[in-house]
Amino acid sequence: PEFAKPVWSYLDSAVSDQRIADAQAMLTAYGPLLAQIETKSGVPKEILVAIWGMETDYGHFIGAYNLFASLATQASDGARGSYARR
Description:
Layout: H1 7-14, H2 17-29, H3 31-41, H4 45-56, H5 67-76, H6 81-85
Helix pairs in contact: 2-4
């Protein structure tokens, strides 16, 4: 959707008062862990939480793909094979 709609239309549908409230709650609930990840990765915790919210709605949507089958496929036949094998 981020490439099929004008950017402002996409943002209007992606950002809501509820998503902002959920992000603030996650920053509070997972603050110490997010700070560790930020230190290790260099990615600000606010960006991590924003991506988490957009991609999974904070764990409410985990997708329809079988993680283990997807990793096995990538490990045997993919450009990211070394990542997937670990």
